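Need the bound structure for adenosine monophosphate, inputs here:
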Amino acid sequence: MTESTDSAHRTPVVTRTAEELRALRPKLGRLALVPTMGALHAGHRSLIAAAREHADSVAVSIFVNPLQFGPNEDYDRYPRTFDADLLACSEEGVDVVFAPPVEVMYPDVDRSREDLGQIVTVDPGPMGRVLEGEFRPGFFRGVLTVVNKLFNLVRPDVAVFGQKDAQQLAVVRRMVRDLCLPVTVLAGPTVRDPDGLATSSRNVYLSDQERASALALSRALFAGADAAASGPAGVLAAARAVLGEAVHVTPPVSVDYLALVDPATFVEVDGDYRGEAVLAVAAWVGETRLIDNVPLTL
Ligand code: AMP
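Answer from helper R.:
Posting the output first, comments after.
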């Protein structure tokens, strides 16, 4: 926005409705959106910094999307830290925060219904049924539906997503392509704590001991990446060796999946594959489910 001068410490305009956004949009020029569920950390901040490089104004949406949570997942206990998030957005020079109430995103919200009253949704297709989609049925339908709504409400030219959620990034890119959405999708690399753990809003759930166990995920991925020259079987074997040991630590790491996939389709690569790939893992440590991945070249 042109009227702002001190970009480091201005307070973003907080919007909660479609009408407020519509009134603001003409003043924002080329606009980049960083969609988030709040509880902002260094990973979100890096996406905001990347967004600023590509637009005149940056919008951050903060919305814990009920449609992407399964009935037994952590929707209710998901961390909600709006005041700290607003401060982080101020520090990062964000122009607009869009923090809608559930009723703005889901006007017919009905919590007694599995579909929450959202009748028309975006079908992610086969990419939405593998890996994360297999373990979290309905997750990518919920993600694509809310991302589509956010694009329509905020009308960004650019949207920035994290490599941390590599399958989400791939599915969103596919939606933009298949539905001809007028948005350029950019990706930011995964931000990690110094010990290797990918920063995540869910890391606050981890006790010190659980956090120590959780380091097996990134260690396994790095071991896999180090073995890239030995081909797909070598990558998977190196990562599996680390995860195999992590089953015996306290508390143990319980793996949902480890897979080496094509980054665009999320189809598992075969034994003689060469080219870009993503090594992805999901695992439980105690009551917390973590995901992580590394891009690599075979
Ligand atoms: P979330 O708030 O978890 O829905 O994430 C919002 C956006 O931040 C998504 O595009 C994520 O992929 C991205 N993100 C989350 N964690 C990280 C991280 N450690 N590094 C980079 N991007 C991240």
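Comments: The CA atoms of residues 224 and 235 lie 4 Å apart. The pocket of adenosine monophosphate is lined by residues 36-37, 43-44, 46-47, 161-162, 164-165, 188, 190-191, 198-201 (CB under 6 Å).
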